[in-house]
Specification:
Helix content: 25-40%
Distance between the termini: 68 Å
CATH topology of the largest domain: Beta-Lactamase
Number of domains: 2
Number of strands: 7
Length: about 190
């Protein structure tokens, strides 16, 4: 409408060819929806400007938000088709991109515990030698947040390209193993 109002019009047929129209003012709902979208867009832009990689997970393990730094750091080999949409997928990706560490099991344990969910940090080393400080914190409603901040570079164990190839090969081996275990559970 010219005055900014938003109306919903519903037409219902009646006997003898008549049509009844119901007109409802939905200006408030539309205004709130537009404001929410604008606020969310602003929030995502602020999050994307942060240097550290950030991901938040709901209590059921779904990844509910992440920033551009997270996507750049943990980009799966071959693009976004394998982008982890939950904590389980993220942990699998993290394990293939970093040196072996009990940190990943600790993150799993943190996600499943309802009590004593105090924030903590630890260091992890990527396959290319990059050292990251990993911070794990509790969010309201039993959610959790994991952040990754670069703290330095050791002598690379592998180049970045070799690291991506190794992660890709490790993911293929894991997929084949799971497929074999699923197809023939008693033989393994």
């Amino acid at each position: 409408m010219p005055d900014g109002a938003s109306l919903r019009v519903i037409g219902r047929p009646h006997q003898d060819g008549a049509v009844a129209f119901m007109i409802e003012d939905i200006t408030t709902e539309i205004t709130l929806t537009r404001k929410f979208r604008a606020d969310f867009t602003l929030f995502q832009a602020v999050l994307d400007e942060m240097e550290g990689a950030v991901a938040a997970f709901a209590p059921d393990g779904r990844r509910v938000l992440s920033n551009a730094a997270f996507t750049a750091l943990w980009r799966p080999v071959g693009g976004g088709a394998d982008d982890p949409v939950n904590l389980h997928g993220a942990l699998r990706l993290w394990r293939t991109g970093a040196m072996a560490t009990p940190l990943w099991q600790e993150i799993e344990a943190f996600a499943t515990h309802a009590r004593n969910r105090r924030a903590w940090s630890d260091e992890v080393r990527m396959l290319d030698g990059t050292r990251l400080m990993v911070h794990v914190g509790a969010l309201p409603g039993r959610g959790m947040m994991v952040t990754f901040d670069e703290i330095g570079l050791d002598a690379p164990l592998l180049g970045r390209q070799e690291s991506r190839i190794l992660r890709h090969e490790a993911a293929e081996v894991q997929t084949e193993y799971v497929a074999r275990r699923t197809a023939h559970p008693r033989e393994n």
